[in-house]
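Progress report, Aim 2. The chain analyzed during this reporting quarter is listed below.
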Amino acid sequence: MSNTRSETNGNPLEKDFSRGHNGAFSPNYPSGNNHEGGDNYQNGGMNPNYPGTNGGHGSGYHLGPDEPSDTALKKIKTAGSISISPELFEKLYLSPQNNIKGDLRRTFGNPTPLAILGFLLSLTPLSCDLMGWRGAGGNGAASTGVYYFMGGLLMLLGGLLEFFLGNTFPFVVFCSFGGFWFTFGATLTPTFNSYGAYSPDPSMPAEGLNSPAFAASFGFFLLFMGLLCFIYLICSLRTNACFFIIFLTLVLTFCLLAGTYWNLALGNAALAAKLQVAAGACSFVTTMSGWWIFFAQMLAALDFPFQVPVGDMSHLIKGYSEKMKDNEEYGA
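Predicted structure tokens for the chain:
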């Protein structure tokens, strides 16, 4: 009986992303994809029933980002070893390939699009509010429920699932922004009394929104969110261009919003209004880049016959472990 293996849903892009238990990788692909970051699994090692490209031994198959679906499915059904390109892995998980144990990436779906969706459905309407489109305003208070149940909940859930898949960078990014959306929603919720504590009249808590002390205090939170995004910006140099644009524009957004609140505290309402519009414009660019990533991931997840690029940059900066491995090889 031939030693074949097929997936339950036949999806070559959402399954078989993890290494095997022995951490091996396919020797038949000596290109830049086949190093420490090459991510695949082994099904019992060499299989003589499936001759490889190098002759009479079994070989691993490699799924590239532009692999035709019929060819990919044929390879999955007959392969003893399957690998996924770093470009496709990075597109799906927004993180360079990493070596993990277990088969969780083959067992569960990809949580990355879920977290991105929560982020986009919270920030896109907020950016329109900040720019005052069609008379919108009120610091986005009309979308308070969205911040809780789309931004906060979905990003936190997606981040925790990334944790179990071994994807540290998306885990930290998604959970931190999930916390941000919960925080922002709570600030706008009267029950938390965040602005009511600054009101000169306890019976009119909304007056606290106009308090210089409240505006000056909340500006610091926005400033340090900008610092956090700057750290993410540096880290995103090993992901893709769209993710880099997202954090670049978020740094600008949070700095402009901090300037907005500080100018409100100083009584410079006209300048604060201009800074708020500029922040809304920057965050709108953020969302457009995010929607592009979301679209690309959904196409890849469904193995569409065409894919859209996200500007992979994972190969531009070599990882520390790769450099150490190269140094050991050169030293030997």
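Residues 1-61, 76-83 have pLDDT under 50 and may be disordered. Residues 163 and 262 are 36 Å apart (CA to CA). These observations will guide the mutagenesis work planned for the next reporting period.
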